[in-house]
Amino acid sequence: MRADAALAGIPVLMLSARKLDADRATALRLGANDYVVKPFGFRELTARIRAVSRRALTRTGEGSPTKIGTLEIDQRTRRAILGDEELQLTPKEFDLLALLASDIGAVMGRSQIMDEVWDQHWYGPTKTLDVHIASLRKKLGDPAWIETVRGVGFRLVDPT
Questions:
Q1: Inter-residue contact 44 to 35 (CB < 8 Å)
Q2: What phi-psi label fits residue 97: left (phi over 0), alpha (psi between -120 and 50 degrees) or beta?
Q3: Cut 0.70: pTM above it
Q4: CA gap 112, 16 in Å, rounded
Q5: By C-alpha distance, which of 56, 76, 61, 60 is closest to 11?
Q6: Cα atoms in the Cβ-side hemisphere of radius 13 Å centred on 67
Q7: What are 156's strand-pairing partners?
Q8: Helix (H, G, I), strand (E, B), or coil: what is residue 35?
Q9: Hey, which residues does 14 pair with through a beta bridge?
Q10: Angle 35-113-149 (CA atoms, 0-180°, nearest 5)?
């Protein structure tokens, strides 16, 4: 199952109608990270995908802190440090900053941010994103950390 070394870090979630313990054990022994038996609920599947992804990030070291200029974001400990000072962020502010830091300099679209930080099924106003961006800019001490790309979304950049 994991013959290609380039694919070794990619999590594998097996979906099957086979319920026997022997089938589960075989799948896990061959390299699956998790095994879900049909029928399953969408919420369970989503939670399992997130859990497998989280474990894979921690195991491969990709969860190590992201640094941009004097800003360091550590998703594993959920800490953001600017210079020598830890930023006091709400959970949503941290998730938003971590998402923007996941691809520094790249533009993240509003809908992508809403889907990943809030929820794909968020029905509230998207104005909440603007409020959180404004709050993050204030806490970062310089609005230039987060650039607005008009009509598209936002990107995280080093203001220096």
A1: no
A2: alpha
A3: no
A4: 30
A5: 56
A6: 4
A7: 146
A8: strand
A9: 35
A10: 150
* Spatial distance between the Cα atoms of 3 and 13, rounded to a whole number of angstroms: 16
Q: What does the DSSP 8-state code read for residue 5?
A: G
User: Which single residue is written with the structure tokens 């080093």?
Assistant: 158
Instruction: Return d(Cα 124, Cα 133) in angstroms, integer.
Output: 16
Distance CA 1, CA 60 (A): 18
Is there a contact between 35 and 27 (Cβ–Cβ < 8 Å)? yes
Digits of tens for pLDDT over the chain (160 positions)? 455 544 556 788 888 888 888 888 888 888 888 888 898 888 888 878 877 776 665 554 455 788 999 999 998 888 999 999 999 999 999 999 998 998 889 999 998 888 888 866 667 777 899 999 999 999 999 999 999 999 999 999 998 8
* DSSP string for 59-111: HHTTTSPEEETTEEEETTTTEEEETTEE----HHHHHHHHHHHTTTTPPEEHH
Measured CA angle at 121 (ends 57, 108), to 5 deg: 55
